[in-house]
């Protein structure tokens, strides 16, 4: 049975804006209050999806969520018509309104954790939607993400869905951004790397070890194929709020910064014991500092196995613009390892909120039967991408400044866009705002 990796990118929503909501995420803090361009953001994301497809790769997407999330505002005591809710929230708590307006579901690496069927005891694909408990605006995503994953991967013969972790921050879980899988080929039994954190001196850790352990149990992974690794607080305090800012795994390759893990030698030994085939490609701090990594998102690249077997890095243009990072990428390509190609893509609108190419995608390895059982509306081809581009051009603004969130017209435009999208995708009354 042939397995393929599908990248499910987050389609960037019509309310994408810079509200500075994520403590510990330097780009989010730095760009707080800047004007965003949601139309450009979504088109950049779609262009990245198209580029991956042109490499011969399988590409899916997850739709944006309904924002502003009126259901949350209602739960917090704002009442009346939709318009009145916005007006009252702007007056009482503008920052809360911004939280309910975030388009952060675009970063689908945080949608959940996925275990492909070759790895699980029951031979099914397991999904756990992330609770994203560390940040209020992101915690709102979990219920709809769960619904979305069940909608797309419905067939119980192939797919198992676990609810988001209970207990909020006690089991803080940020999904696949702190998870990687090493394997000889996508269809072989893989070794799962779970990276968790402990609070640094400056910034809090989002991923709890006990949450990673619970996900591994729920997914029926073999203990001999799981490794739990502590992230270094140096990386966390430098701005690596998710481990995928400092490392990425694909196939046999683990590509990372030498300061990613708390105890590097112990981590590498544990990885090599369970995945003896692993090839670790490390950036020394002397070549690329943590600061360079976090500014350029060098390791927030998509590391992709191309149909011919070689690997390509899909990087943000910020990495090409940093001399030291570009030199390290060029040196990596010239060495004897599977990484032979690089593609730089402009995802600047997302980058300015701390989300690079890898943040924008959830990897789902599927057999041909499993892929056929998934809802095909969400698996892309050229015509479907064009339809989404047209939808974006019809419904999105090209500018949102902080004050625009107070304008009820933005809410109405966003809900109209969601209605058109659910019509396009045959989703029925999917979103809270439609129920
Ligand atoms: N994997 C990348 C996630 C980026 C995301 N940024 C944000 O939510 C910023 C939103 C804002 O500040 O408006 C986060 O920090 O979780």
Automatic annotation (TrEMBL):
It is an enzyme of class 3 (hydrolase). Gene3D superfamilies: Succinylarginine dihydrolase. Substrate binds at residues 19-28, 110, 137-138, 206, 244, 353. Pathway: Amino-acid degradation; L-arginine degradation via AST pathway; L-glutamate and succinate from L-arginine: step 2/5. Signal peptide: none annotated. Catalyzes the hydrolysis of N(2)-succinylarginine into N(2)-succinylornithine, ammonia and CO(2). Homodimer. This is N-succinylarginine dihydrolase. The gene is astB.
């Amino acid at each position: 049975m042939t397995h393929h990796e599908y990248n499910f990118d987050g389609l960037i929503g019509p309310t994408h804006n810079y509200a500075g909501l994520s403590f510990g995420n330097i780009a989010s803090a730095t760009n707080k209050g800047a004007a965003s361009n949601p139309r450009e953001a979504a088109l950049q994301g779609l262009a990245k999806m198209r580029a991956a497809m042109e490499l011969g790769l399988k590409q899916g997407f997850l739709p944006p969520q309904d924002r502003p999330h009126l259901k949350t505002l209602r739960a917090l005591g704002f009442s009346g018509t939709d318009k009145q809710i916005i007006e009252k929230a702007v007056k009482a708590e503008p920052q809360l309104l911004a939280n309910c307006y975030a388009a952060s579901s675009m970063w689908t690496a945080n949608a959940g954790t996925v275990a492909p069927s070759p790895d699980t005891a029951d031979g099914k694909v397991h999904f756990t939607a992330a609770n994203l408990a560390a940040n209020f605006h992101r915690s709102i995503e979990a219920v709809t993400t769960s619904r979305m994953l069940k909608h797309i991967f419905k067939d119980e013969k192939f797919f198992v869905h676990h609810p988001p972790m209970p207990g909020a921050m006690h089991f803080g879980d940020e999904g696949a951004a702190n998870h990687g899988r090493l394997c000889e080929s996508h269809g072989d039994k893989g070794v799962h790397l779970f990276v968790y954190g402990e609070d640094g001196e400056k910034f809090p850790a989002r991923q709890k070890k006990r949450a990673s352990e619970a996900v591994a149990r729920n997914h029926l992974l073999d203990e001999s194929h799981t490794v739990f690794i502590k992230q270094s607080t140096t990386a966390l305090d430098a701005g690596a709020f998710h481990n995928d800012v400092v490392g990425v795994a694909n196939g046999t390759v683990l590509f990372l910064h030498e300061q990613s893990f708390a105890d590097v030698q112990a981590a590498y030994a544990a990885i090599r014991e369970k995945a003896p085939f692993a090839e670790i490609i490390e950036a020394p701090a002397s070549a690329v500092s943590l600061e360079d990594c976090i500014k350029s998102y060098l390791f927030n690249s998509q590391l992709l196995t191309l149909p011919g077997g070689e690997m390509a890095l899909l990087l943000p243009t910020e990495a090409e613009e940093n001399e030291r990072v570009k030199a390290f990428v060029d040196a990596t390509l010239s060495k004897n390892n599977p990484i032979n190609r690089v593609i730089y893509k402009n995802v600047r609108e997302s980058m300015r909120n701390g989300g690079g190419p890898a943040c924008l995608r959830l990897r789902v390895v599927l057999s041909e039967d499993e892929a056929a059982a998934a809802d095909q509306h969400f698996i892309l081809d050229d015509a479907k991408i064009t339809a989404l581009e047209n939808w974006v051009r019809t419904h999105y603004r090209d500018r949102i400044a902080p004050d625009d969130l107070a304008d009820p017209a933005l809410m109405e435009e966003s809900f109209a866009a969601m209605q058109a999208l659910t019509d396009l995708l045959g989703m029925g009354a999917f979103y809270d705002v439609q129920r």
